[in-house]
Amino acid sequence: MDKFVDANSKNNKAISPVHLVALVDIGLFALLSIRTGVFEPFIMILGGTKIVLTYTMYLILKKLKMGDPYIALIVALLASLGLTMQLRLSTEVGTKQFIWFLLGMGIFFVTTFIYHYFHKRIRAIWLFYGLMLSLFILTLIVGVRINGAKNWIIIGPFSFQPSEFIKILFVYFMASFVSNPEKLEVELKGQKITSKWILMGLVFVLLGFFVLQREFGTALLVFMVYISTLYVFEKAVLFSVINISVAGAAAFMAIQVLPHLQTRVTTWLHPFADIAGKGYQITQSLFAIGSGSFFGTGVGLGYPQFIPNVETDFIFSAICEEMGIFGGIAVIILFMLLVYRGMKICLLLRDPYTKVVAFGLTTTAGFQTFLIIGGVTRVVPLTGVTLPFVSYGGSSLVSSFLILGLLQALSGSILREESFNDEKNHNKQ
Amino acid sequence: MYEIIATVTKYALTFTIYWFIFRIAKLIYQDIKTMTVWESAKVTNPHLKLLSTLEGNDKQTVTEIFPLITGTTLVGRGIEAQIIIADPHISSKHLQIENTVNGYVIRDLASANGTFLNGEKLMKPLILKEGDEISLGVSKMIFSEGRE
Amino acid sequence: MKKTTTNSRILHVFVVMSILFLVLIGYMSYFELRGKSSLMSNSYNRRLKAYEEGIIRGTIFDRDGEVLAITKIKNGVTTRSYPYKRLYSQVIGYSNDMLGKTLLEAQYNDTLLGLNALGVVGNTMSLITGEPKTGNNLILTIDHDLQTRARELIGDKRGAIVAINPKTGEILAMVSTPDYNPNESALDENWDYLTTDENSPLLPRAVLGLYPPGSTFKVVTAVAAIKKGLDDFQVEDTGSVVIDGKTFTNAGDKVYGTLDMISAMTVSSNVYFTTLSEKLGGRALVSTAEKAGINKKLNFDIPTSKSKINTKIKSDTELAATVIGQGKLLVTPLQMALICAGIANDGVIMKPYLVKSVSDRNGEILTTTFTKKLYRFTDAKTANQVTDMMVEVVKNGTGKRAAISGINVAGKTGTAQNEKSSQGGYDHAWFIGFAPADDPEIAIAVLLENQAEDGGQVAAPIARKLMNLWLNK
Question: Tell me, which fold does domain B46-144 have in CATH?
Answer without folding.
Answer: Tumour Suppressor Smad4 (2.60.200)
